[in-house]
Specification:
This protein is mostly helical. It contains seven helices and no strands.
């Protein structure tokens, strides 16, 4: 068993003992998503820590999107719960890059792409290929794409 998955299971046990309903239900759903991912495909396999981390990031993103939808629908109480679940899942993810750090990485990649001959908005794909491995797991794709567009535009 991977260390991240083991940590989730240990935290689930602790949350159940502490009668922390929010934490236990969130971790339970996340472990279910990890298990589902393990049996998806042609053969069952155990996920690595990086793969478990991607599943947790996907679950956290779902919570943020659901919170947004609930708040637009006028269900503030449900939106707060979704945000709380997302914040809880963020504890298991690496520290996200600040806007300044992201801008620096993207600026470096834009300069590298321009040196290779890519110019203007059409260089978006080339820049994203350079940036994505550097920020993997530490910045959401939407934030990265927005920063790249902003720097390529001007």
């Amino acid at each position: 068993m991977t260390t991240l998955k083991a940590k989730l299971k240990d935290d689930l046990t602790d949350a159940i003992r502490a009668r922390d309903e929010l934490r236990s239900s969130t971790i339970r759903l996340t472990l279910a998503a990890v298990s589902k991912e393990e049996v998806a495909g042609t053969t069952a396999r155990e996920l690595s820590d990086d793969e478990v981390q991607k599943v947790i990031a996907r679950e956290a993103k779902k919570r943020r999107e659901a919170a947004d939808a609930f708040s637009k629908g006028g269900r503030a109480e449900q939106a707060e719960r979704e945000l709380a679940e997302g914040a809880l899942l963020d504890e298991y993810l690496p520290q996200q890059l600040s806007d300044g750090e992201l801008e620096a990485v993207v600026a470096e990649a834009v300069a590298e792409a321009k040196a290779a001959g890519a110019e203007g908005p059409r260089a978006m794909g080339a820049v994203m290929k350079i940036v994505n491995p550097k920020v993997a797991g530490r910045a959401e794709g939407g934030r990265v794409a927005a920063a790249v567009k902003r720097l390529l535009a001007g």
